[in-house]
Amino acid sequence: MAGPWAAAEIFDSGWAVLPALVVLMGLPSVFNVAGDKNIEGISVPGVVRIAIESLLLLVAVAATWIVWPLWAAVVVSLVAVGMVATGLPRYRWLAAGAPPTS
Description:
mainly alpha, two-stranded parallel sheet, flat
């Protein structure tokens, strides 16, 4: 949510929200790893998916520090750390080439 808001502020234009939304929503929706989700899109290697998710997380954290109050940016940063910590098994699976689990 903060990414498009930050884009509008950085570029001083509400129109900057549209491409930000397309990129931030489109990347994770279109590029997937086979076996990772029930929805299939364009199949990419696990490391590409990790890069996409890392980019989204970095944008979310950076954008909150730009447009939200300090307390909210701290909360989002802590949630991001928690997401990475709890997602480590999945990231390892993706980095290993996302081998079949069955």
